[in-house]
Design brief:
The protein is mainly alpha-helical. Helix content is about 50%, strand content about 0%.
Amino acid sequence: MAENNPTPNPNETQPTPQGNPAPAFDYDKLASLINGKQSVAEDTVLKSYFKEQGLSADEMKQAIGAFKEQKAKNTPDIAKMQSDLENSNKAKLIAEVNQSATLEAVKQGVDIASIPYVLKMADFSAVSTDGKINTEKLTEAVKKVLDDIPALKAKASENAGGVQKIGGDGNGTSDGTKQNSSVPTKKWNRFNI
């Protein structure tokens, strides 16, 4: 007859339970337990240190309170630092979008004086994704504003390259037209033509 042996043989493999998921942990609770243990250990170390220094119970409480207050002051505010970083990244992205939009507006022939108006009217909400600028969407946003308000584009005469005439033409008229020849001129001598 075979005997039931309650102790397993080390050479035998144990069947593993199938379908039993790993136990779920509440990580927030674990973190609070760890923080609690750390604060208790910190208090114990501080009390023993101040006891060695010969402080009374009230003096120890005051010294521990002052230490914790100083520690809280010196601890950086991670949330504030994170929000400052996000704000600076947003400001940098806005500046890059405005710079790229200004260049695009100049390429499309917008008068320099009208560029700030184009930038304010354009919808740049879909231009950036994950901190990168989509140049196609930027071009579309600027074109949309120019299609809606074509008066923002520079006039063809202003955009025409080349030399622009400044001043008179040397004939005594500033508008470039010749003097009316039907008006008689008085000749003072024979050399004046």
